[in-house]
Amino acid sequence: MKLPFGRSARRVSTLAAASIGTVLLLSNPAFASYNDGFAATTANACGSAIFVDYGEGAAGGGNNDDYVQIRDNCSDSHGIRAWAWVTEHTSAGDLTYSLGSKYNGNGVAGADVIWDPFIDGNVRAGDTVKLKVCLVDGSGDTTGSSCGTATHTSVDG
Ligand SMILES: [Ca+2]
Ligand SMILES: [Ca+2]
Question: 74 is in which domain, residue-wise?
């Protein structure tokens, strides 16, 4: 999904990073020095949506910047669905983009689902990421139960 991020929006993100500290300006975004990882968990802790700032991504896929690991923590006949949004804070106001959702039906013994919905593959410094995760009953259940959310504003992308 391509969305129109304007040049002015990118510049605002850069300025936001600059206000945090000059040291961070020296960091390469692909090897950013601040760990912006965070997680949303279901109310009963049986499902997690884990934002990984920089890591190995899918098995065999090599290093990857900014993705979500969707994890099933309980043997309870429920699957897991995660949703994601990203908000850019621009001079014209906040722009929030829905990035859709992804299902993990692998069960507690199965592999985490690696999901990379982020535009251009990366989150930029100053962008706010929101994750929601719910227990669901099958891939067609887009409502879910026991939902939890978490948000984090990226320090250095
Ligand atoms: Ca970072
Ligand atoms: Ca990152």
Answer: 7-153
**Residue 2 falls within a domain, yes or no?**
no
Quick: pLDDT tens for 22-69: 444 444 445 558 999 999 999 999 999 999 998 887 777 778 889 999
Tally the domains of the chain.
Answer: 1
Q: How many angstroms does the Cα of residue 15 sit away from the middle of ligand 2?
A: 18
Dihedral, 7, 51, 148, 127 alpha carbons, nearest 10: -20
Ligand 1 center to 28 CA (angstroms) = 10
Ion ligand 2: protein residues whose beta carbon lies under 5 Å: 53, 65-66
CA of 140 to the centre of ligand 2 (A): 31
Residue 42: CB partners within 8 Å, gap ≥ 6?
A: 48, 80, 133, 134, 135, 146, 147, 148
The pTM score is: 0.78
Within-domain flag for 145: yes
